[in-house]
Amino acid sequence: MAYKYVRIAGNRRQTGLALGKLARPLMATYLNQSRTWDALRPWRGHAFLDELAQQAQAALPAIWEELEGLAEGLHMPIEDVLLWNCRGDLLHSTTDGCTSVALKSADGTRWIAHNEDGDPYLHGRCHLVDVALEDAPGYLSFYYPGSLPGHTFGANRAGLVQTINNLRIRQRHPGVPRMLMARAVLDCATLDEAVAKLRDLPHSGGFHHTLGAAGDPRLLSAEVAPGEVSIQDIGTRYGHANHMVHADMGGVAQIVTDSSRARQNRIEGIVDGWSAGSGRDDLIAALHDTTGELPILRTAADDPDDENTLATAVFEIGESEVTLRVYDRKPKADIVLDVMSDTE
């Protein structure tokens, strides 16, 4: 199995501390083999990183407490943990990939599914964390060692679902680091609250958010970049890889890798063939598709973006329930969770 399931509870600092302790045995080895960490180290002590810290503390003080707890649990300086969690704001390209799909079935069920693509070293070394907070709904999220949860796939006890795709933005801009922003979205109780947070706070980096919520008929596609936010209501079916495709984001400079272009073209072709009767099996088949030299399911040792699929998530969203199924490169789920009732 590509991850371990862990429950955590407490206040902000306590949950961050627990997340840090969870990752501590692996963190040094993980960073030592990471080319991303090599590229980040010259940014230590840079004034721009200090600016990102100030923006994060001012806009998201509760999330900053989690980051401080994370650093304490990792036995790492807060400056280095912040640096790691700002990798997508500082570097134009990182080993965080992903493909997301969304579907509205004829019976009203909404579906959001996602391939979490990342550093191949992490396959089998990540966690699915179930975090209960004292002052927020609490959430389930895939957890990369040393990274605040939320920038992968997750859902909270209020029924809000979020999946994240990396965008490779060519500009740097002072603002709230994108991974802290994604974590903050999981504290929102409604889609409208999540959209307001994405629109109102200043952004440093760029992400694509696929959003849905129990009891809300909408599915949303949000492309977020410094100074620009585009929110689109998804019709009946949708696919998104790792570059911006919204027409009103055409002026934002970005890097489009061969893999992202190939996956975007392929996923659009697949979802165009879906019908009102499509459902979970169609989403899994799409995300496990191996067609072409640069397929949606990524397992190649020589992947050009240095990424492999670490897990596949399928969220089934109803009127008062959200079910999460997680898969490890095979059609049978490893785990099934009822997100809103806190039962496995």
TrEMBL record:
Classification via PANTHER family: BETA-ALANYL-DOPAMINE_CARCININE HYDROLASE, PEPTIDASE C45
Organism: Achromobacter pestifer
Coiled-coil parts of chain: none
NCBIfam families named in the record: C45_proenzyme (NF040521)
Name of the protein described by the UniProt record: Peptidase C45
Gene3D superfamilies on file: Penicillin V Acylase, Chain A
Short name of any one Pfam family annotated for the protein: AAT
Span of domain Peptidase C45 hydrolase: 107-328
InterPro entries documented for this protein: C45_proenzyme-like, Peptidase_C45, Peptidase_C45_hydrolase
Lineage: Bacteria, Pseudomonadati, Pseudomonadota, Betaproteobacteria, Burkholderiales
